[in-house]
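FORM 7B: Structural annotation worksheet

SECTION A. Query
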Amino acid sequence: MRILIISKYASSYENGFESRFFALSRRFVKLNHEVNIISSDSSHFGHYPEYNKIYNFSKIDDINVLRIKTTKYKKSISLLRVLSWIDFEIKLFFAPLKKVQKPDIILVSSLSLITILNGLILRKKFKAKLIFEIRDIWPLTMVVEGGYSKWNPFIILLSIVEKMGYKYANIVIGTMPNLKQHVFNVTNNKKIKCDYVPFGYDQDFFKSNNKSVLELRNKFNIPNDKFIIGYAGSIGLSNGLDAIIECTKLMQGNPKFHFVFLGKGGMVEEYKSKTSEQSNIQFIPSVERSEVSDFLQACDILYFSSLKSEIWEYGWSPNKLIDYMMSGRMVLASYSGYQSMINEAKSGIFIPAEDPFAIQDSLLEIISMSNEERIKMGSSGKKWIQENRNWDDVAKKYLQIMSQL
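SECTION B. Predicted structure
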């Protein structure tokens, strides 16, 4: 098959990290399929070369890549990011696609949601099958978590675009397991084809380092005589960390526990200020992705946080959780939504979101378990990811879906 993938945020290893579509495309190519990726050079993640031309063609691991020069931005929630979307769509509409052979499949991925409009145009132009992949449910996220009114003109416009995508795509793919329920809620049409293709795990990221827990803790200046609760990821308002910060205050009289947060974000300084007189918490600045695995393995258990949100009724698709489970550590998840992965693997505990007392009670329960029990649960999570989230298998599932369109 000839596959055309349009994803504004698709990035390769040369941009600092490999995104979903480069991971999949490398495997599509190995299975003798031809792949073209159209992407941009602007993201709040990764780094890109400074292009002089608007349209930049290259080849990466036998994948044909068109990188479109677009408006740069730094903040994930900003007007510049929206302008960057619009810039990408306009330039995509006028892109010189003569070098791109007629595709059999066009795969359009959000964000940006409005890319589906170009996808619909290209489907008609090339007479190809169209896949609409949803990784973030917009505009619902903007309404539920961003505080926008559903009657905001921009939200109304995005809602119309979303419905068009669901209606006219040959199939809708979600990276979250219950997206079909959202699609039905929006369209009231059970005949729309939906499927679930999750994220896979990066085998190179989890190469064994043969270091002891003591060595790993020394590397990050983490106490070796404490039970370590670790968190790795963005530390912002939307990450739902208020509850565990409050829990650190509740538990500061218990000398057994130590909380460690690795990452950066808009709430770091505020959390540092709130906990400045506590000795049971520390913050570590962001490190290279290659070092994150070391940090995860230096912890006794790992904490996953979320806010209460309608979004989670449709499931989750966090790369972070794959990293957590692949580290072989038990996971405590503050999450009130459609459950998957942790419960399937029996590798951790779900508790209600935004509840510091539930976190405290669970930590006391976990520390009362034997070390063998915790290791068994962590190992179960790693095994489950290896058996169910291997990129090779994920790619084969995607190709099977494509072949049936």
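SECTION C. Observations
Residues 371-388 form the longest helix (18 residues). The first strand starts at residue 2 and ends at 6.

SECTION D. Sign-off
Analyst initials: ____
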